[in-house]
Write a structure and sequence with these properties.
Blueprint (H helix, E strand, L loop, with lengths): L9 E4 H15 L3 E5 L3 H4 L2 H6 L4 E3 L4 H13 L3 E7 H6 L2 H9 L6 E5 L17 H6 L5 E3 L4 H13 L4 E4 L4 E3 L15 E4 L4 E5 L3 H14 L4 E5 L2 E3 L3 H11 L2 E8 L4 H12 L4 E6 L9 H7 L4 H18 L1
Parallel strand pairs: 2-3, 2-4, 4-5, 5-7, 6-7, 10-11, 10-13, 13-14
Antiparallel strand pairs: 1-8, 6-12, 9-11
Helix pairs in contact: 1-8, 4-6, 9-13, 10-11
């Protein structure tokens, strides 16, 4: 994986940062309860359970019931964090998330680990590529895909402070470091400018932010200055940052470890086509599931690398020139 992010240091996996942040929150807030569906070691919610066993519940391999129990605890004044693989908690628990959390707008925090295709050898059955689109379709849900360990810590803190349902996606592999420490100005619905540029904009989240930075540096060698936005929050989207990027740079590329249908790119495109139409390109999974394999090899095969982002920027710039 490190070879995919030349020049960037790899930090902890975002699932590790989640487990540590959750344990730290538990030390300060005794209203937090944590539930898992028999995957606590993998999701890292076990970090909380080891220190606070009286506030930790393993409901077993029954994700729908996981959501139902959490909704009851939220109704009783607790702040439940529920964890499982993203493909299980969102797909198997979707009806309960809809009727027992979203509809009554309960204060449940949902964390899906092993997001995207980078779980690698686990294969398509455990690689979540639809979770962001499904979570975004739930009214009142905040949907967040943090890029590194530090932003994940900030997102977990923000989730506790937010009154209402939140979905955070975490990942299995070590993630490239984007920040030097926990960003003090992190807030749901606010993009972060991580690289300046005026020729085009790359809007990315998750591990694709690291790939976007690598693409930025490569393009800079050819005199192409590309803005990079870390759009951790897919919902609510930072629409003003999108409008500004469209007006000031005139071309946008989105990059996500997710299907291009219904995810970050689709939501950015809604704003662009409504408020300031410009050429766009989309880096993501194109209507397909992945397969079992080495994570780095899968990211290359399915077009989720800095090479693919760089190529998309060059295409969108060529399209813009052809429109003049």
């Amino acid at each position: 994986m490190k070879t995919l992010y030349e020049g960037l240091e790899l930090g902890k996996a975002t699932r590790d940062a989640y487990g540590e942040a959750l344990r730290d929150l538990g030390r300060r807030h005794d209203d937090i309860v944590v539930l898992d569906a028999d995957l606590a070691v993998s999701t890292r919610s076990a970090f909380f359970g080891e220190e606070f066993p009286d506030r930790f519940f393993n409901v077993g391999i029954q994700e729908a019931n996981l959501v139902g129990v959490a909704s009851g605890l939220a109704s009783s004044g607790k702040v439940p964090f529920i964890s499982s693989f993203a493909c299980f908690v969102i797909l198997k628990g979707f009806d309960q998330l809809r009727m027992a959390v979203s509809y009554p707008r309960l204060n449940v925090k949902v964390v899906g680990s092993h997001g995207g295709i980078s779980p690698g050898e686990d294969g398509a059955s455990q690689q979540a590529v639809e979770d962001v689109a499904l979570a975004c379709s739930l009214p009142d849900f905040v949907v967040c895909v943090p890029s590194d360990e530090y932003q994940t810590r900030a997102a977990v803190e923000a989730a506790y402070a937010h009154e209402g349902p939140v979905y955070i996606r975490t990942g299995r592999p070590k993630a490239p470091l984007i920040y030097d420490g926990v960003p003090a100005d992190f807030a749901f619905g606010r993009a972060t400018l991580v690289r300046e540029g005026g020729d085009a904009t790359i809007i990315a989240n998750g591990i694709m932010v690291g790939a976007a930075i690598v693409a930025h540096e490569r393009l800079l060698r050819d005199g192409i200055r590309v803005r990079v936005l870390d759009m951790a929050t897919v919902k609510p989207l930072d629409e003003e940052a999108v409008r500004l990027a469209a007006r000031e740079t005139g071309a946008i590329v989105t990059a996500e470890e997710h299907l291009i249908h219904g995810g970050l790119g689709a939501r950015v495109a809604q704003v662009v086509c409504r408020d300031h139409p410009v050429p766009m390109e989309f880096v993501g999974l194109d209507d397909t599931y992945a397969e079992s394999g080495d994570p780095g090899a899968l990211l290359r095969k399915y077009g989720l690398t800095a090479d693919d982002i760089e190529a998309a920027v060059r295409r969108v710039l060529e399209r813009r020139r052809s429109m003049v």
